[in-house]
Amino acid sequence: MRIQTHLPLALLGLLALVAPRAQAQQLDYARTLHGPNMVFVPTMGTNRGPIFYTQYEQVAPTNSTTLGDLRRIIVNLYPTAHRPVAQYNNFLTANGITDAKQLAIPTHGECAPTQAIKDLLAHMPEGFKPAALLGTYPIVCKLSLYFLPEEEADVRAMINAGPVMTLRGSVPLCDESSPLVRVPEINQRLTNDGVLTTNTAGEVTGNSWNVLYESARLAQISPSLFGTSDPQVGWEVYVKSYVMDLTAQTAVMSPATASQPQYICTPEPLVLQFP
């Protein structure tokens, strides 16, 4: 256990990390649901969260639009779970969940035109060459294609023959069996020891130096509360759950954070790819 031998160094390293900061909503990987070409991960304490899609299908409109002397087609990249949309709706209904409707692109990857479609329309002037556009949920991304009227048959033939855009991405999820720091139980132990109190707003509060020292001591006594065989890792996760002011010697944990465990994430990225 590193805490006992390296506690002073660990404390010094944390001083730069415990300044006031916003608490991010954490995903509850233990309640991950897998549907047909879908992965749903709720946020802690809710049945609402993002759905990530693992299979996609490109869809082109029947008609092109006319812009001056040019024609235009916008090809959409849909999740196959929405074609038909009944697959998606049934997944939500059957599990009693709410989709947060967050697009994975461009945060976790990008779309691009294929080399073949770029070569076909290489003669188009700048600003009218094939270009990937941001999608509108659930369309992950779009491909804008401008061409001359006499080229429409060739463009449609290429769209019908196969993919004219690519998707490459990786969503940084955690393994569903990732260990947990048992925050509510740790708080209760420290409350019993007189280190923490809960104010009328539901915030867990204490003296910052006492919280640092006594939580480190508890990690040595009861390492199972801190989620790993090396309790210092879990202890650091726990300490970062606070907003601390070392000058005023205060430590405050929000009610939402205090009510749920914190993950020690074992990375298991979700790969996004088309085709």
Structure report:
This protein has 275 residues and is α+β, with helices and mostly antiparallel strands. The chain is built from eight helices and 19 strands. Strands 5, 6, 7, 10 and 11 form a five-stranded antiparallel β-sheet that branches. Strand 16 and strand 17 (250-253) form a beta hairpin. The longest helix has 14 residues, at 208-221. It is elongated. Mean pLDDT is 90; it is low at 3-10 and 15-24.
Order of helices and strands: HEEEEEEEHEEHEEHEEHEEHHEEHEE
Rg value? 26 Å
**Average pLDDT level:** 90
Secondary structural class: alpha+beta
The number of helical elements comes to: 8
**Count of distinct strands:** 19
Strand content: 25-35%
The general outline is elongated
Compute the separation of the termini in Å: 47 Å
Largest sheet entry = 5 strands, antiparallel
Question: Helix content range of the residues, please?
Answer: 25-40%
pLDDT below 50 for ≥5 consecutive residues: which ranges? Answer: 3-10, 15-24
Which descriptors would you attach to this protein?
single chain; 275 residues; alpha+beta; 5-stranded antiparallel beta sheet; 28% helix; elongated; disordered N terminus
How would you sum up this structure in a few lines?
The protein is an alpha+beta fold and 275 residues long.
